[in-house]
Amino acid sequence: MSIKEQALIVNGEPVTAAASTLSALLDELGFSGARIATARNGDFVPERLREATPVEPGDRIEIVSPRHGG
Amino acid sequence: MNVRDKTADVESALTLYGERMPSRMLIGTAQYPSPHILAKAVEASGAGIVTVSLRREQARGRTGERFLELIRELGVRVLPNTAGCRTTKEAVTTAQMAREVFATDWIKLEVIANDDTLQPDVFGLVEAAAVLSADGFKVLPYTTEDLSVAERLLRAGCEVLMPWGAPIGTGRGLANPYALRSMRAYFPDVPLIIDAGVGAPSHAARAMEMGFDGVLLNTAVAKAADPVRMAAAFAQAIAAGRAGFEAGLMGVRDMAEPSTPVAGTPFFDLKARDE
Question: How many C-beta atoms surround the C-beta of residue B119 within 10 A?
């Protein structure tokens, strides 16, 4: 593990990742090209802002996609 | 049976946020035995709007994409929900995520107050409705029959209200018909859609006879032994209830009144003499 890795909460689960931006994190976790939407610490992060959005230790990241609903 | 074409011809078709709907039935996409049955049930319902949700995706997961593909093939409008959200903030963020991923600014706004009743947190609901309306969303709030809450939702920018029939998933029908009748009378020009608690086609027909503009349901169809037939049954009940409302229901009386003319009844004079 690189010393640069940081502890995050992704979809409610603890994760360590080297990425320093949200878009890099999505790549690192295997979400490249997926039909998803994201939030960081409770705030929506539009796709166009993922690259400019930093990821910092302790961040809570939500990664969601379409599902059935009532 | 698909009743979409027939209801589209009705002059008084349901219009929501300026868009004419092909049907007065809205249907959920959850809990079906299979994606195939879901697709068939939506088709049989004739619904022009289906509700969908957002859930956490697995790494390398493609569940969302497959689901979206299925829904696209149905050729209906999607109405994402904020199901499970408990605060204004959660609901607003979920709506924003839904707008991006489903490419629609329509949102079925739910802010849930309590796990057992799944009743709306009306304070959070009004707050979230104001934030989202100001942000350009077309908000369809899942609310109670409370008139003051309804007023506030309208002031917050909602053009449609969705009062509950009964708590989500209970199938109890219209738990408080008196309050729903009052709501209908109080807001004659606001599209009102009964959302949740509808368990049987007769419940939906009753709501439509009362003058509600539409019915949104999920479990009653998805959990039926034959969801496709049940979807068609609801479509017929909703169309029949609406037609009944438009035709004008007779008044209810306490005492009997013969429907066959009394004048000229055979032996009428004998009966009179016996008495």
Answer: 17
Q: Is the pLDDT of residue B258 over 50?
A: yes
Q: For CA atoms B85, B112, B100, B66, give the dihedral sign.
A: positive
**Residue B215 CB burial class (10 angstroms; 0-12, 13-18, ≥19):** buried
| pLDDT tens digits along B107-125 | 999 999 998 899 999 999 9
Question: CB–CB of B97 and A44 under 8 A?
Answer: yes
Question: Cβ–Cβ of A69/B102 closer than 8 Å?
Answer: no
Could you tell me if A5 and A11 are in contact, meaning their C-beta atoms sit under 8 angstroms apart?
A: no
- Report chain B residues whose CB lies below 8 A from the CB of A63: 56-57
Distance between CA A34 and CA A11 in Å, rounded?
15
Distances (CA, A) of B40 to A47, B1, B52, B213, B227: 33, 10, 16, 24, 9
Give the three-class secondary structure for A48: helix
**What's the ipTM?**
0.95
Largest CA distance in chain A: 45
Q: What is the 3-state secondary structure (H, E, C) of B174-187?
A: CCCHHHHHHHHHHC
On chain A, the residues whose CB falls within 8 A of the CB of B62 are 34
